[in-house]
Amino acid sequence: METLFAKQDRLLALTSTGIVRQLIEQINWDAQLIAIKGARGVGKTTLMLQYIKLNYPQCSREVLYCSLDAVYFSNHSLLDLTDKFYKNGGKHLFLDEVHKYPNWSREIKEIYDFYPDLRVVISASSLLNLLKGDADLSRRCIPYNLQGLSFREFLQFYKGIEIPISSLEEVLTQPQELCSRVNEVCKPIPLFKEYLRYGYYPFYLKNQTDYYTSIEQVVNLIVETELPQLCGVNTANIRKLKALIEVISTSVPFEVEITKMATVIGVHRNTVIEYLNHLENAQLMHLLYADIKSVKKMQKPDKIFLENSNLLYALADSQVQIGTAREVFVVNQLSYQHTVEYGKNVGDFKIDGRYTVEVGGEKKTFTQIADVPSSYILADDIETPYGHKLPLWTMGFLY
Fold first, then answer.
1. What predicted TM-score, i.e. pTM, was given to this entire model?
2. Taking all residues of the chain, what is their mean pLDDT, rounded to a whole number?
3. Most exposed of 65, 188, 197, 342 (fewest Cβ within 10 Å)?
4. How confident is the model at residue 134 (pLDDT cuts 50, 70, 90)?
């Protein structure tokens, strides 16, 4: 166990607390069992290490961080480690990459049941089956979700510009207040264009030159390793799965034709729908439906978007259409805390079943939503609101 403490000490020495996500203040770290969920690359490991560094003295042996894919666990069990840690005064156990440890959910359930005063934090590098292992942890575990950086966080961490969070209702009903505050300290339009291309993943600061290459590596790891391991995807179909991602990343968002997509990549239509659901669970895509209340199992989505605009720019093999990037941004920023439906014949999107939004450039008009109540235009390339026509970038201040 001392080797794990030594690794922890080295990791903490290298962990910066210059960029600390707001989620660290929202988590109930005193709960017996919590799970930090989120897409690979958004900073879950860093968040755990930062909490330890900020709340425990250097070289403390009351807290232990370890990744369950470490060589140590090839001949040591998690239960044995926990028992030894607890008997030596351990109080807080942080377990990363839990899905890479065989029977992880059973052993964590046993730890929960037999060490009631030990606090345990678990995380995984994807959302895949985090709370659906062999043992049901859903009633025992408090889940938290860590998203990639919002536009607000991009300004905070990359540009040193501090703007508080606004609720969606505040943005829609009092947009002038937010816009005035932002315009006083920066020119948001060029910064927003930069954000669409770079900065959603926190690792941009560490490796700007190879940022897109790093994103591609994340995608390959999910498709080649995690989907076969956690979702039972046939490894023989990995190339077809990648072809599906390529089709979506190089296309303007369209009303989905599953049969046509199945023909292009050479699999059954039900397999296409199954793969799309896996990709959404892995937070590589957003599947939108025109009526989310009536969605049934194996129903085709009405529209498909990549999960975020940085992913779009990294994977597209041709010039990205700005209209696509705008819509991807809106769906990404809103989906974290709100329900987004495909608008179909009325606007681009419906939010929480209450608001209708149309997304476009600065010349976008209300023609398509003129008589629709609670409707708004989210327009690119504008700095200030005009009635219900709001700057597109205002959607980036919701978290």
1. 0.91
2. 93
3. 197
4. low
> What is the C-alpha to C-alpha distance for residues 77 and 81, in angstroms, rounded to an integer?
6
Report yes or no: 353 and 339 within 8 Å, Cβ to Cβ.
yes
Residues 123 and 40 in one domain: yes
For residue 218, the model assigns a pLDDT of: 93
Spatial contact of 317 and 246, defined as CB atoms under 8 Å apart: yes
Query: Largest alpha-carbon pair distance within the chain?
Result: 69
Contact 303, 288 (CB under 8 A): yes
Annotate 138-167 with b (16+ C-beta within 10 A) or e (fewer): eebbeebbbbbbbbbbbbbbbeeeebeebe
Any residues with CB less than 8 A from the CB of 207 and at least 6 apart, and which? 214
Q: What is the pLDDT of residue 363?
A: 95
Residues 212 and 140 in one domain: no
Query: Residue 290: helix, strand or coil by DSSP?
Result: coil
What's at 244, amino acid-wise? L
Model confidence pLDDT, tens digit, residues 62-109: 999 999 999 999 999 999 999 999 999 999 999 999 988 988 999 999
Q: How far apart are CA 231 and CA 237, in angstroms?
A: 13
Tell me the residue range of the domain where 197 lies: 153-397
Identify whether residues 293 and 256 lie together within a single domain: yes
Asked whether residue 140 falls in the same domain as residue 165, the answer is no
Residues 201 and 348 in one domain: yes
| Cα 147 to Cα 200: distance, rounded to the nearest angstrom | 9
Looking at the fold, whether 175 and 208 belong to one and the same domain comes out as yes
Could you give the number of structural domains in the chain? 2
Residues 140 and 160 reside in one and the same domain: no
> 108, 127, 145: which is the final residue of a domain?
145
Q: Is 74 exposed, middle or buried (0-12, 13-18, 19+ CB in 10 A)?
A: exposed
